[in-house]
């Protein structure tokens, strides 16, 4: 696996933060060998736009508090159907359940190595 330890730490924090806001289908994949522009993608989803916003805000807050990380870009916030936080070495995608199903990023990256995340139940 090509994902560096600091990125793994950040993904674990993101997973825990998302879980505190009842995110669903939390996952992360190692895309470093396939993309070259980032090491990992983090995915989570929620049934409402309000919950998508809550999850994304919590992830951003926890990464800032614990690791002093700020995203270089934040996109999709106007509708909160698919919000993206770009941290350079990893990208956070929080999607409304319908977008998660329609765009099927999990299937698109199904051949990429899965990253073990902490239990979030």
Automatic annotation (TrEMBL):
It is found in: Cytoplasm. Signal peptide: none annotated. GO terms for cellular component: cytoplasm. Pfam families: RsfS (PF02410). Its main location: cytoplasm. The keyword DNA-binding does not apply. GO terms for molecular function: ribosomal large subunit binding. NCBIfam families: rsfS_iojap_ybeB. Belongs to the Iojap/RsfS family. Interacts with ribosomal protein uL14 (rplN). PANTHER family: IOJAP SUPERFAMILY ORTHOLOG, MITOCHONDRIAL ASSEMBLY OF RIBOSOMAL LARGE SUBUNIT PROTEIN 1. This is Ribosomal silencing factor RsfS. The lineage of its organism: Bacteria, Bacillati, Actinomycetota, Actinomycetes, Micrococcales.
